[in-house]
Amino acid sequence: MDDLTFRKRIYANPHDNEQDIVDACSDDSTKAKFKSDMKMFDSQLKQALNVKVPENLAEKILLSQSIDSQKGSTKRTKVHLAIAASVALFVGVLSTKFGLISDYNTVGEYALAHHTADIQHAHEHNHYNSEQISAKLAAFGGEVIDALPDISFAGTCYFARIKSLHMVFQGDKYPVTVFLIPNQTGLENSPQFSDDEYNGESISINDSQLLIITHKGETKKDWSKELTHSIKWNHD
Amino acid sequence: MGNFFRRSQVSLDMKTKQIKYEALVRAYSDDLYRYGVWLCRDPNVAEDLVQETFLRAWRSLESLKDQGAAKSWLITILRRENARRFERKQFDLVDIEDSYVPDNISVGAEQEVENHLLRRKIAELEPEYREPLILQVIGGFSGDEISSILELNKNTVMTRLFRARNQLKEVLEPQKQQHRGIENG
Prior knowledge:
The complex is a heterodimer.
Chain A: H1 3-12, H2 19-27, H3 29-49, H4 57-72, H5 78-98, H6 107-121, H7 130-137, E1 142-144, E2 151-159, E3 162-170, E4 175-182, E5 192-194, E6 198-205, E7 208-215, H8 223-230, E8 231-233
Antiparallel strand pairs in A: 1-8, 2-3, 3-4, 4-7, 5-6, 6-7
Helix pairs in contact in A: 1-3, 2-3, 4-6
Chain B: H1 2-40, H2 43-59, H3 70-89, H4 94-99, H5 109-124, H6 127-137, H7 143-150, H8 154-184
Helix pairs in contact in B: 1-2, 1-3, 2-3, 5-8, 6-8, 7-8
């Protein structure tokens, strides 16, 4: 194989192991070295291309799908599906335009839907120390100053397509879900909200709001008091 | 009775679909994100693209017959989503396109300098050269697979891959010479 063809082939694919390439390398040590140099360059290239992936990306994707499916699960007939598809498209356009999901009118409705969807997926049993939680809270101007109840999950989540912090605390009987979201979500704020099983409340802190969702069977602990005492909120 | 069986069949199918989907997300979301970042050069947009891609994948999972082709199927969906985004917002994106260089996983300091230089050069490559290179290096796709994803003939793909590496090598070589000079002096 002539030198130019060989180089072209190796530049296009340093891992080319076709018989003619293998033969060319065993006949000519310069070619073998060229191929090995290019393979090294390629591993450097791979490292350079290897960008950081956001934390919990797979979980976030699974959660979005879960919320999406729940919205669709009540639609049974093809006609309904067709309508749902057009609504979804319309909502999609709106969401892209305004950065919100308008299937839900209030923060409370969305929080409960997100929470219900999350029950299936984010059943994690992690342990976090207060530095780790402080680091996550820092983006919202929060800092842990007193012992918090045990946290089994804390991670960034998309709340109506806005980056937010999602935490699950261990309650006495049931997990307690907390969302830390910006005040401006494009949804109507809801100080109190509930469904058949859960109660929710929202507390405003600086430019953010803390949503706390507790099971109706959970003891009457004052979670909002506990959280606002254990976390110091820095004013801008 | 018939209804009951039909219903349990449906829920079984749903469960199978869910398992299949979760496996896809866990196996490919990272690579899809990396590909997205290099394609649109904006990490936030890339994340949204990956989200949209998987939502679409969920809705048409039945059309994926060959599991072995899952990755190229997902890449094709992501490229289509990206093209849609371009149609919508072509003009807003010019600034990002010109300036953004993705950040990567940290390695040793010296390696990091070279990596940064390399990333900048990759970001500066013409998209028609950059894309097949990303597909080959990150995606691990063969020339034939890349040609089918990009809808180009294989010779064109191989020529572009050759030119992409050639350009990167050319810009890096003078740097190496310079480094050597400093070391010798």
